[in-house]
Design a protein that fits this description.
5 helices, mainly alpha, about 65% helix
């Protein structure tokens, strides 16, 4: 992945994810989407959506997006959409996992 915004936003989130160098992008995304950690998967998808939105703002409005702010707004959005049960875990960075599974 060559997009610095996506690398920094994923790392700045509670996921603390590093984009793998030696793994196919499709395989890496499939790992995240099939992850047992549903909160992490939801946050991952929300970050992807926020990245797409930031891309559109950059192309059509010339906007520049701060990756840390993007990660923070993705966490806030995910917290609002999640049942109360998962809020504390996500707010405390509980989705961070080691290794490629549930990065």
């Amino acid at each position: 992945m060559k997009c610095n915004l996506s690398k920094l936003a994923l790392f700045a989130s509670h996921l603390g994810s590093h984009t793998p160098i030696n793994m196919d992008l499709n395989c890496w995304m499939s790992e995240w989407l099939s992850c047992a950690d549903k909160e992490g998967s939801q946050l991952f998808c929300t970050i992807l959506w926020k990245l797409w939105f930031a891309r559109n703002l950059a192309i059509f409005n010339g906007a520049i997006t701060d990756p840390v702010k993007l990660a923070q707004t993705a966490v806030q959005f995910t917290q609002e959409a999640m049942p109360k049960k998962g809020l504390n875990n996500l707010a405390e960075g509980g989705t961070q996992k080691a290794g490629i599974t549930c990065l």
